[in-house]
Design goal:
The complex is a heterodimer. Chain A is of the alpha+beta class. Chain A has helices at 5-53, 101-105, 153-200, 213-217, 222-267, 274-310, 321-331, 333-338, 359-375, 435-445, and strands at 55-57, 65-67, 79-84, 89-92, 110-115, 118-130, 142-151, 317-320, 342-347, 353-357, 382-391, 394-401, 449-455, 459-467, 470-471. The radius of gyration of chain A is 53 Å and the shape is rod-shaped. The model of chain A is unreliable at 421-430 and 471-476 (pLDDT under 50). Helix content of chain B is 41%, strand content 20%. The chains are: A alpha+beta, B alpha/beta. Chains A and B meet through helix 5 and helix 6 of A and helix 1 and helix 5 of B.
């Protein structure tokens, strides 16, 4: 097996959590960076203000502004430039070659630049007003432009730290979540494994299927449990039925062989006259015929059932049902006369029903049904066979007798093999109880249906319905 | 000895009955369904019942159960097509004495039938001896003082039954019950004819008489301490 449901679920959970972790880490890093940058900008503005505070008029009357270096306290690495209104440089920190002219001319408040491979971030404070409060009278209001930049190395380091922390925390949580997912999924799937184990324990010898109670309560597994239970119960029924009929077949075959064997052993038990041997051999031959009939019946039943499962015989023709039934009635006329039973073949409204089937199969069905009816009819009664089109798609063939009928409690079983209208079978009619089983197998192989109705003491009616190929209604 | 064969397969019943008649010299009745079988088994005295399991009207195991429940001790030999062990164990525990699975050997059936009858009479020995009289159940031969005695089939059957109940007094009715099947008209004087025939063949050349008549009671096959008293 190269696929595990458990692995698949765990991988899906982990992948989704990994995406979540990456997203979360990115969000944290980006948000922290924005926050830190805004803090940095405020700090820069503050420092620019402190620069502004130490700018004042020169002592002379040149009206130039000077920066009092002595009072200036800014970090050593910071870059400062101060320009007056007229665009002349008041002061520039010695570690700087100066800001690009475009920066001062433009109107962006912040900027970034590299100075000797060190990233800097700066602010441009334009038109900052200087209040010179010397001599306790307000001086003239003078405006300057301050460019102040500070290295962002510390800031970058800070952001990197936050990133590393967020990433490692995410990874740790991911591991935990992965472990929980694996544990949860394993636990969640355990009813499935138990169910599989319970299902694996079912065998031909042991049909008891006991699914874990947990599986029954899970909405995903309950339908599976139900389906498994139904399938296993169905299989068991089919298997038991098959086993029973195999046992029945074995009983019939063994009995037939036992008869033949005992006949022959009896014959050889003591010396007999020629006539005695002749009689014994005739008996043995009769037993042989019986055995042969039983084997043939069993085989034709097996064959018909195989067709029903795998498709039909090769000799499929269009057959006129009325014709086919009339022929079978004619074939059984001698048997009927020998038992003083009359036979009628009726057609309804001159319906002409044509079906696609093998002629031999249909004949087997009619002969079996008619033979049954004749055998169970009292002398002087009538067996009738009626062919009609029950509806546009189906032909209905009814074989009816007025015999003893079948007790209601045996009716459901008459189509089963080796049944003779009695739970322990009566051999009075000499059959094997295969006839109706063969009929059903053949009719079902042609997608038809066979039913039996019987009133105890008043007769039996067998109804066969077969799908019609074409129906030519000759209304007269 | 009289045997009941309960078997719905007519031909098989007929063969078994013929085998028992020809091969063991038993009187045989045949019942073709379970109900008739139970009725006959309960209303007649049989020395053995041969019972098929799948019977119309009343299944073999049910027949057996009812038969045993009503107190009958006659041995029952089952004929079955099912030879799986659990069903055989169930049968034997249910009161059957032996079984044969189909298709069986007629010779084996006869041997088992004879053995069951012997055991049912409390005589497991294949050769019964009464004084110097030897009766071989297996090949149905009789010897008196080591010399073979030729008996007519009916005479042998009378002797065999008397020997199986040796020392006891067997009434004429009991003999009729156990020697003739259902279809015979039973005439008591027939028994007297066979007894006198037996006496002639067994007792006439010997000093000790073994066959005794107890007037009004019946017959006994035994060595009497004071021989000749009954005559």
């Amino acid at each position: 097996m190269n696929g595990s449901l458990r692995k698949q679920i765990i991988v899906a959970v982990l992948v989704s959590q990994l995406l979540l972790a990456i997203g979360l880490t990115l969000a944290i890093v980006l948000y922290s960076r924005a926050q830190l940058l805004s803090d940095f900008n405020i700090m820069l503005a503050g420092r620019a203000d402190s620069v502004l505070a130490v700018i004042h008029d020169a002592e002379d009357e040149s009206k130039t502004l000077i920066l009092d270096r002595g009072r200036l306290s800014i970090p050593a690495g910071d870059l400062v430039e101060v320009w007056d209104e007229n665009g002349s440089l008041i002061w520039r920190s010695p570690n700087w070659t100066g800001a690009p002219a475009a920066l001062i001319a433009g109107n962006s408040a912040t900027f970034e630049l590299d100075q000797r491979n060190v990233p800097y971030r700066g602010v441009v404070v334009r038109k900052a007003t200087i209040f010179d409060e010397e001599d306790n009278h307000p001086g003239s209001l003078r405006k300057v432009t301050i460019v102040y930049a500070s290295s962002t190395r510390g800031l970058d380091r800070h952001i990197l730290k936050i990133g590393v922390f967020a990433t490692s925390a995410s990874l740790l949580l991911l591991c935990l979540a992965g472990w929980f997912a694996a544990y949860g999924v394993s636990k969640g799937l355990s009813p499935m494994q138990e169910l599989a184990k319970a299902a694996a324990e079912v065998s031909v010898r042991n049909w008891s299927f006991s699914p874990p109670q947990e599986a029954r309560t899970k909405s995903e597994l309950a339908p599976l449990v139900d389906a498994l239970e139904a399938t296993i119960a169905g299989l068991q029924r089919a298997f038991d039925r098959e086993r029973e009929s195999t046992a029945d077949a074995a009983h019939e075959l063994k009995t037939a062989v036992a008869i033949l064997k005992s006949s022959l052993q009896l014959l050889s038990y003591q010396p007999r006259s020629i006539d005695g041997y002749k009689k014994g051999l005739d008996h043995a031959l009769e037993d042989c015929d019986r055995l042969e009939a039983l084997v043939c019946g069993t085989l034709s039943l097996a064959r018909a059932q195989q067709w029903a499962e795998e498709g039909k015989s090769d000799d499929i023709q269009s057959i006129d049902l009325v014709n086919s039934c009339e022929q079978s009635v004619a074939d059984l006329q001698t048997l009927a006369q020998s038992r003083s039973v009359a036979m009628r073949c009726l057609t309804n409204n001159g319906d002409e029903c044509v079906v696609k089937a093998s002629p031999a199969d249909l004949k087997t069905v009619w002969v079996n049904l008619l033979q049954n009816a004749i055998q169970h009819s009292p002398p002087g009664s009538t067996v009738s066979l009626r062919v009609s089109a029950s509806d546009p798609d189906n032909a209905l063939i009814a074989v009816e007798d007025t015999g003893a009928g079948i007790p209601a409690e045996h009716l459901p079983y008459v189509f089963e093999r080796f049944r003779r209208g009695d739970p322990s079978r009566s051999r009075a009619t000499g059959g094997f109880g295969l006839g109706l089983s063969i009929c059903r197998a053949i009719v079902e192989a042609y997608d038809g249906r066979i039913e039996i109705e019987s009133t105890d003491g008043a007769g039996t009616r067998v109804l066969v319905s077969l799908p019609i190929l074409t129906k030519v209604s000759s209304s007269k | 000895m009289r045997v009941l064969v309960v078997e719905d397969e007519k031909r098989l019943a007929q063969n078994v009955a013929d085998g028992l008649r020809q091969g063991a010299g038993y009187a045989v009745d045949v019942a073709e369904d379970g109900e008739a079988g139970l009725f006959m088994a309960e209303s007649n005295e049989y020395d053995l019942v041969v019972l098929d399991l799948m019977l119309p009207r009343l299944a073999g195991p049910v027949l057996l159960e009812r038969y045993r429940k009503s107190g009958h001790e006659t041995p029952v030999l089952i004929l079955t097509a099912r030879d799986d062990k659990p069903s055989i164990i169930k049968l034997l525990n249910g009161g059957a004495d032996d079984y044969l699975s189909k298709p069986f050997d007629l010779g084996e059936l006869l041997a088992r039938a004879k053995a069951l009858v012997r055991r049912g009479k409390g005589k497991p020995q294949p050769v019964l001896t009464v004084g110097d009289l030897e009766i071989n159940w297996a090949d149905r031969t009789v010897k008196r003082a080591g010399k073979r005695v030729d008996l007519a089939p009916m005479e042998y059957r009378v002797l065999e039954y008397l020997a199986s109940r040796s020392r006891a007094v067997v009434s004429k009715t009991e003999l009729l019950e156990h020697l003739y099947d259902y279809n015979w008209e039973k005439f008591g004087n027939v028994i007297e004819v066979y007894i006198s025939g037996l006496r002639k063949k067994i007792d006439s050349n010997s000093r000790t008489k073994l066959i005794h008549t107890l007037r009004g009671h019946g017959y006994a096959l035994r060595v009497e301490a004071n021989a000749g008293l009954d005559r």
